[in-house]
Q: What sequence folds into this?
């Protein structure tokens, strides 16, 4: 069997369990692929070859014994926001350039226990702040479909790695669209679970009421396998839900008859790329052919979501990033007193976008401005949440484009921060409302760049998203990049 | 690279930016200060659109997800590991993180 790196989790798991391939061969194939193309793609910041091969060998012993979990021996790429014991974790920032965590994030512990293999840590926007991976302190990642284009962000490295078959699946985080947007730009599946479905312990925090961990996969079916391993209560994350985790595989029935799909009029706007609208409307027509029903709905506060987000997320970030002070870990610039130590270390260690967001968030929380900005934004958040609650009285899930346009060119939006922020216009409300979202490929523009469909569900509605995504996928074959 | 400076009245003054940088403990260069004055002004101008909404009777959402705080027994479950904890220390002396003098 050749080109093992192109397998899905489901395919690889089958071949591994039947001992047609070994975990070592599969990991070797991915490492060779990384060696062959990553100098052009720059998806990885750290490649952990000896550790990965050791994990693969351990997986092979378990596989020989039989009864191993679905992820045993599966090589994964891990966004550099997850603490991985003994492996450098930078958050794509100079302030953590040499930081080596002494512990694993909960999701890393779970994946390790399931026998997964960690190929390395992927590139991202610094501290998850960005929509293109251009804010990384270590250079951008490129889109495998067109190396002059961005892969999206902030989890661009993970998205590119999956799309380019450098790994079988990957882990990312999503605070305002950071899984769904790269999934759309790179033509793969990305899932942001319901807020609180997956533990955030050991995940470097950006905005604690918005951050969620989720998978990048080559198929919706694989997404269900990853969700099964990731979801569930964690006593070390006080926000993590104790709600029972369903058997996600049972959702993959292929049946969408009588499923009511809400189509919000505010998500089909002037200035959208016409090919994106066409591809999404075509996907909706496919759903109708399969027996689903589409219903026009309204989410009237959509246009206020970006403004609310850039107050809430930045305010929370200003608190979460206060810990980077040069005292216990991270970059330290020497100084005569402790205040100067903080001031200089932080100015030297943080990039421009991170500084911008910390400043905005600090301002929004400061005396005299808290009510007008932070509190106001949290009230608007309630209105956005209520829009969705009303919509879900009339539909089972909501379908939208993931982004207004396909992947833009590297450097195209870096001159104006606000232009970059507007890329998140279709993903951001979902984080504010804490809902689950799934992005998957539904077409390509005339340059061959992927178009992403977004499915949004009610709280803990992951099964509905997986069912609908899987049904669509059975009739749609995604393209692989030529790389 | 051209930067377009919108001719709106500034939503944040230079003095305010300096004050915020002190709160945020970030020592900005002059170039950074000027850029931030422009960038933050533009962003705050965009954010002004929230004023179009009447939220007087609306409760804020601070947290989505299940309400309440989970409780546990007050017992130590992670015992001190000084070497692991000090592994990334920029400066270390024995069991301590070393920092510039704080108290005169």
A:
């Amino acid at each position: 069997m050749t080109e093992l790196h192109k397998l899905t989790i489901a395919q690889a798991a089958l071949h591994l369990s039947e001992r047609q391939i070994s975990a070592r061969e599969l990991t070797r194939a991915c490492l060779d692929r990384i060696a062959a193309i990553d100098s052009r793609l720059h998806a990885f910041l750290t490649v952990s070859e000896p550790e990965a091969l050791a994990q693969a060998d351990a997986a092979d012993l378990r596989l020989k014994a039989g009864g191993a979990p679905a992820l045993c021996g599966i090589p994964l790429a891990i966004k550099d926001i997850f603490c991985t014991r003994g492996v450098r974790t930078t958050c794509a920032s100079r302030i953590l350039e040499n930081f080596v965590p002494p512990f694993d994030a909960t999701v890393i512990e779970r994946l390790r226990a399931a026998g997964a293999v960690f190929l390395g840590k992927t590139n991202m926007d610094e501290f998850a702040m960005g929509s293109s991976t251009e804010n990384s302190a270590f250079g951008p990642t490129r889109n495998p479909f067109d190396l002059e284009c961005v892969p999206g962000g902030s989890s661009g490295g993970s998205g590119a790695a999956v799309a380019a078959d450098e790994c079988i699946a990957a882990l990312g985080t999503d605070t305002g669209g950071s899984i769904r947007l790269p999934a759309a730009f790179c033509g793969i599946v990305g899932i942001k679970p319901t807020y609180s479905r997956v533990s955030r312990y050991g995940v470097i925090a950006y905005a604690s009421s918005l951050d969620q961990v989720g998978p990048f996969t080559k198929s919706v079916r694989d997404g269900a396998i990853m969700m099964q391993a990731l979801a569930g209560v964690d006593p070390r994350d006080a926000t993590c839900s104790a709600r029972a985790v369903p058997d996600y595989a049972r959702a993959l029935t292929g049946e969408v008859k009588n499923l009511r799909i809400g189509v919000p009029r505010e998500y089909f706007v002037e200035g959208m790329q016409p090919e994106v609208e066409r591809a999404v409307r075509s996907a909706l027509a496919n759903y109708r052919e399969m027996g689903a029903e589409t219903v026009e709905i309204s989410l009237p506060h959509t246009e206020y979501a970006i403004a609310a987000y850039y107050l809430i997320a930045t305010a929370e970030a200003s608190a979460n990033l206060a810990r980077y002070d040069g005292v216990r870990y991270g970059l330290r610039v020497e100084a005569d007193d402790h205040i100067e130590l903080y001031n200089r270390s932080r100015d030297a260690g943080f990039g421009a976008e991170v500084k911008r967001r910390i400043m905005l968030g600090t301002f929004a929380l400061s005396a005299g401005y808290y009510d007008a900005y932070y509190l106001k934004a949290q009230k608007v958040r309630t209105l956005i949440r209520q829009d969705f609650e009303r919509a879900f009285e009339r539909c089972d899930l909501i379908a939208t484009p993931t982004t207004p346009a396909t992947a833009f060119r590297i450097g195209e939006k870096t001159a104006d921060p606000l232009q970059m922020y507007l890329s998140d216009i279709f993903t951001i409300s979902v984080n504010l409302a804490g809902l689950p979202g799934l992005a998957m490929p539904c077409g390509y523009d005339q340059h061959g760049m992927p178009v992403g469909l977004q499915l949004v569900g009610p709280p803990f509605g992951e099964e509905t998203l997986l069912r609908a995504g899987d049904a669509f996928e059975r009739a749609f074959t995604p393209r692989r990049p030529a790389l | 690279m051209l930067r377009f400076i919108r001719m709106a009245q500034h939503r944040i003054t230079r003095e305010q930016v300096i004050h915020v940088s002190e709160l945020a403990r970030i020592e900005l260069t002059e170039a950074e200060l000027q850029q931030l004055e422009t960038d933050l002004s533009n962003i705050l101008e965009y954010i002004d659109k929230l004023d179009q909404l009447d939220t007087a009777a609306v409760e804020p959402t601070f947290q989505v997800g299940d309400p309440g705080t989970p409780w546990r027994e007050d017992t130590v479950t992670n015992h001190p590991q000084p070497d692991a904890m000090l592994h990334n220390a920029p400066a270390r002396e024995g069991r301590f993180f070393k920092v510039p003098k704080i108290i005169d």
